[in-house]
Amino acid sequence: MLLQVLGTAAGGGLPQWNCACPGCSGARAHPHWRRRHASLAVRADRDRWYIVNATPDIGDQIESVAGLWPGPEPRRTPVAGLVLTDAELDHTLGIARLREAKSLEVLTTAPVCDALLTKLRLGEVLGPYTRLGWRDLPLDRPVPLTPGSGVEISAIPVSGKRPRYAAGGPGGPDDGAWVVALRLTERATGTTALYAPALAAWPPALHRAATEADCVIVDGTFWDDEEPRRSGISARTATGMGHLPIDGPGGTARLLAPLTGRRLYTHLNNTNPLVDPAAPQHKVLAELGIEVAADGMVIEP
Ligand SMILES: [Zn+2]
Questions:
Q1: Ligand 1 centre distance from Cα of residue 204 (Å)
Q2: How far is ligand 1, taken at its centre, from the CA of residue 222, in Å?
Q3: How remote is the CA of residue 18 from the centroid of ligand 1, in Å?
């Protein structure tokens, strides 16, 4: 299996255009601090890739990896489609950026698809430009990433948190599937990877998948639960904002520490001390055997 990390920042990116916090200012002073919005490309077969989450940076993210460039025919692209883990704007605005496509396949769960069609009205808005083909991303039942692909994908619900633009709608049977983790399995080798850029909880099904996975890439939005309040970006805690923190008694570091596969954090908010490459928190994670994903990283679980 081949995974290409296209971005590792939470919503806003690093730096965020209207922010002068130490992280964003640091990224302006030191270009190597910069991070694009969290995204991952997964190779479905020799020359077809799926991009997990369509961020506002998706055009630059495709250009940053030669394997995603079009050719040899003028309008032939190796980008076969998109997979969405949720309906948040920083994971979906990039769909409009790809409107030059003749057609665009989008794999996602029912509530996410419904929010994009009825709240963002993507079908109506993009209809005159491209044809969006929606495919259901099944929960806990693996399906080939694309017909004939050696990579299977399934979703594990991790949160019922809706994006703000879809708040307060009627509940449905799939309400737990507003945010999912993705389980990717290479059939030939049995190698598995788990990608969960947003985690509000650590349910038993996720724990099982994480324990079995050869590589786990998870939500590292906030270092600790008080970070959003302390930095003044929110009146809520990290958990209250739908992200389990890394550190502390309810944090994910202690859940990841005993696992045997490779473990990485992604989706770092600009307030997270980890955005400074010299921060002592990197050493804390390294001692637990946990890495921080970097833009451009290639992972072969
Ligand atoms: Zn900032």
A1: 34
A2: 13
A3: 8
Q: What's the CA-to-centroid distance between 267 and ligand 1, angstroms?
A: 14
Cα-to-centroid distance, 24 and ligand 1 (Å): 4
- E strands, the chain, are 3-7, 39-45, 48-52, 79-83, 103-108, 131-136, 143-144, 151-159, 179-186, 192-196, 215-219, 262-266, 290-292, 298-299
87 Cα to the center of ligand 1, angstroms: 23
Kindly report, residue by residue over 239-282, the tens digit of the pLDDT: 999 999 999 998 999 999 999 999 999 999 999 999 999 999 99
Q: What are the chain's domains?
A: 3-296 (3.60.15.10)
Residue 52 near residue 41 (C-beta atoms within 8 A): yes
Angle, CA of 183, 106 and 2, to the nearest 5° = 45
DSSP labels, 191-234 = -EEEEES--S---HHHHHHHHH-SEEEEE-S-SSTTHHHHTTS-
